[in-house]
Design a protein that fits this description.
The complex is a heterodimer of chains A (330) and B (274).
Chain A: E1 4-17, H1 21-30, E2 33-47, E3 52-56, H2 63-70, E4 78-83, H3 92-96, E5 99-103, H4 115-125, H5 130-143, H6 159-171, E6 177-181, H7 189-206, E7 209-214, H8 217-223, E8 226-231, E9 234-240, H9 241-248, E10 252-258, E11 270-276, E12 279-284, H10 291-301, E13 304-310, H11 314-325
Parallel strand pairs in A: 3-7, 3-8, 5-6, 6-7
Antiparallel strand pairs in A: 1-2, 1-4, 8-9, 10-12, 10-13, 11-12
Helix pairs in contact in A: 6-7
Chain B: H1 5-19, H2 22-48, H3 58-70, H4 81-89, H5 92-95, H6 102-135, H7 149-180, H8 184-197, H9 212-215, H10 225-231, H11 238-272
Helix pairs in contact in B: 1-6, 2-3, 2-6, 3-6, 6-7, 7-8, 7-10, 7-11, 10-11
Chain lengths: 330, 274
């Protein structure tokens, strides 16, 4: 029995619209027009305990809406959700006591309170037994390197420091399920790495189930074994990360630098993408042509100065994926 | 006990935090002292010019005014600024991530918010109006002590009642702020209402005879009129208990109404999105 089961989840928002200009505003006084926005359209997936699932998609794709429904903040228009046997939006208090949630864009700590007092308050809110709380807190402080920040009010922390504190705050009651909505947004590279490392350790060492949304492909690459690509409120793909990569990466690029002017090449299955003096860019399908064989063949005829093989950036893969499935930014 | 522990923790965290705002406390105290003096002068002029004997002695009216200034913060002036901020930023929904009854959580914090501001202001104002003024030979303008030991005890109970009643009204204002997506409309309404109908501007004793019985039964009376009459011993024994019952009754009713209304507002938020 999976820990999280989402079936045919649909969420529609009603958005008030008004025509531009004064006349439009006056008209709006008498007749309101509303437009229905479909944020989620029959989304289904399930998650086993201990899995780490990445949710990716452009802004407005439905990632945050999904997290909000799963954490009990929002109620779906139709469809069903069960997390650990509870319906989040029906059994809110019992449900939220078992999960940890971090929203990258919001702080859940108290702006004016020192970090440690915020932690104490959370321990009281979640009714964590005193000794247990102290142990968990000390572990998290060590894991997230928070010891020097504990006495500072939250508003004085940098974004990276704050995010580490937020993650610790979400874990004080030792939830077995963690929802992270864009946890690395706006962070610098070392802070991102720190967040990823912690998430990974929680997942691997403690078996915490993690559902993470992001549009940072490096997060996904570093963390997720399984990825759901979402666009326009629909699931476009739900597959292991490697498969997604293989599917989208049916292309390799070779950059060749020749000793002399680049020759005219005509090889079946290989496309010449660019030619500039001594350099040449080739693209081919790695499933049909092997990169070493191709390079050996070229090198046998033309002396090479340098070789550089590349796979397309993950951003590009996703962009292509969206193109193919028609999910531009909503 | 375990059930209320989180709410007590919320209370004490905010109480301790707000208590630290010294500059605000001193500024508030200075304003309230100044206003108190002004009101007393106006009151004295009114008393000396009166053609009929007023329903309250000048000595009591002066004490009433000082009490009103000391506990001014207990009058609901606006929605809880933290809740108002959450309404503006759309973060209300995130408070729903706490495994708590949202009403209880906000209520505990509202009590802490007003109590922590009242304590320093009241202490300073009592020091000046009840101790310093008599010492300077201005005893006739001073804050007089309560009617007796019983009155003192009952007054303290009534002031706890004031804190609880005040928070239940603040919470209603919060609910209106959540439902209307802004705190401005509700704030505009609540301040004049609570000032006038509590007896904060003019003691309810000065209102026309036909209006007074009704006024003394409405919820705002529990904020000023009832506790201060207990202070003077005007409400004593059975009368005092009746007064406290009115106060407590309204508090319970407003808590129940606010709880239901907040639940409805939150369900709507769940459907519409934060």
């Amino acid at each position: 029995m999976p820990q999280i089961v989402v079936r045919d989840l649909t969420k529609r928002y009603r958005v008030a619209e008004r025509e531009a200009g004064t006349f439009g505003a006056l008209k709006g006084l008498f007749h309101r027009r509303t437009r229905v926005v479909e944020a989620l359209d029959r989304v289904s997936f399930s998650l086993e305990a201990g899995e780490l699932l990445g949710f990716i998609g452009p802004n407005g794709a439905g990632k945050s809406t999904t997290i909000k429904i799963l954490s009990g903040i929002l109620r779906p228009t139709s469809g069903s959700v069960e997390v650990d046997g509870l319906v989040p939006y029906e059994d809110r208090i019992r449900h939220v006591a078992r999960i940890g949630v971090v929203f990258g864009q919001r702080t859940q700590l108290w702006w004016d309170l020192p970090v440690i007092e915020g932690f104490d308050l959370l321990a009281a809110i979640y009714r964590v037994e005193r000794r247990r709380y102290q142990r968990t807190r000390d572990e998290l402080v060590a894991l997230l390197k928070l010891d020097r920040l504990l006495d500072q009010p939250v508003r004085q922390l940098s974004l990276g420091q704050r995010m580490r504190a937020e993650i610790a705050a979400a874990l004080l009651h030792e939830p077995q399920i963690l929802f992270l909505d864009e946890p690395t947004i706006g962070l610098d590279a070392p802070a991102k790495l720190a967040v990823r490392e912690v998430v990974q350790r929680l997942n691997r060492e403690r078996g915490v189930t993690v559902l993470l949304t992001t549009h940072d492909m490096h997060d996904i690459e570093a963390l997720a074994e399984r990825v759901i690509v979402i666009g326009h409120g629909r699931i476009l793909a739900d597959s292991p990360f490697e498969r997604l990569r293989a599917e989208g990466l049916a292309e390799r690029r070779v950059y060749l630098e020749f000793a002399d002017d680049a020759p005219d090449l005509s090889i079946a299955g290989v496309e010449v993408r660019a030619r500039d003096g001594r350099s040449l860019e080739l693209a081919f399908d790695p499933g049909k042509t092997s990169a070493p064989a191709l390079i050996a063949r070229i090198a046998a005829q033309h002396p090479l100065a340098d070789i550089h093989v590349e796979q397309p950036a993950i951003e590009e893969v996703i962009a292509r994926f969206y193109d193919r499935h028609g999910a531009a930014e909503a | 006990m375990a059930a209320v522990a989180p709410y007590l923790a919320a209370f004490s965290a905010r109480f301790q935090l707000v208590l630290q705002y010294r500059a605000a406390a001193i500024a508030g105290f200075a304003t309230q002292l100044w206003w108190g003096a002004l009101k007393i002068m106006v009151l004295a002029a009114f008393f000396y010019g009166a053609t009929r004997s007023p329903p309250m002695s000048l000595t009591n009216a002066i004490t009433y005014t000082w009490l009103g200034q000391a506990f001014l913060i207990f009058l609901p002036w606006n929605a809880d600024p933290e809740v108002a901020e959450m309404v503006r930023s759309g973060a209300v929904a995130y408070d729903r991530l706490r495994p708590l009854d949202t009403y209880g959580w906000w209520y505990a914090r509202a009590v802490a918010w007003s109590a922590a501001r009242v304590v320093p202001r009241a202490v300073l104002l009592f020091a000046v109006a009840a101790v310093l003024l008599p010492a300077l030979g201005l005893g006739q303008w001073s804050l007089r002590p309560p009617a007796g030991l019983a009155a003192t005890g009952l007054f303290l109970i009534a002031m706890i009642g004031v804190a609880l009643l005040s928070a239940s009204i603040v919470l209603l204002v919060n609910v209106i702020a959540v439902a209307s997506m802004t705190d401005r409309g509700a704030n505009l309404m609540i301040a004049p209402f609570s000032n006038l109908f509590s007896g904060g501007i003019v003691p309810l004793a000065f209102f026309p005879d036909w209006l007074r019985p009704g006024l003394r039964l409405q919820p705002f009376a529990g904020l000023v009129d009832i506790p201060y009459r207990i202070y003077f011993g005007e409400l004593a024994g059975w009368g005092a208990l009746q007064g406290l019952a009115v106060q407590l009754g309204w508090t319970l009713l407003l808590v129940l109404a606010g709880h239901a209304a907040l639940g409805a507002a939150m369900r709507r938020l769940q459907v519409q999105g934060g």
